[in-house]
Structure formats: C-alpha cells, structure tokens
Give the backbone structure.
Amino acid sequence: MIEVDSDNDTLCYCAGTTRQQIKKLLDDGIVDVDRISRITGAASGCGGCEFELQQLIEEHG
Ligand code: FES
C-alpha cells in the first residue's frame, strides 16, 4: 500500500516513525540524526530509512 499523504507516511518501518514526527522534531530545532533516532527510534533497526532521514534533514535545512 502506498500512502499518498506525504506528511503522514511512514519513514521508518522498523520503528513506525512517520515523516510528520520527524518534521516536528526538525521544527523544534532537533536536526541531529542520532538525536532523532534516539527519540523516535527511526534508523535504529535495519538502517534502510537512514538515507531518507538524512534527506529530510537536508531539505529542512
Ligand atoms: S526502516 Fe528505519 S531502521 Fe529499518
């Protein structure tokens, strides 16, 4: 299933972290991959979402 709402779709399938959760942290000034990972669990499993997480952070910058 492909989610169309890009703000609500899952970024990390291991932790079930959504892009919206990540963006909220970015808006709060948390722009560090390790911190985001510790808070949301994103990129702490298979690592498959790490590249996309990095991209989100860069886009935000
Ligand atoms: S999908 Fe994010 S760590 Fe596996």
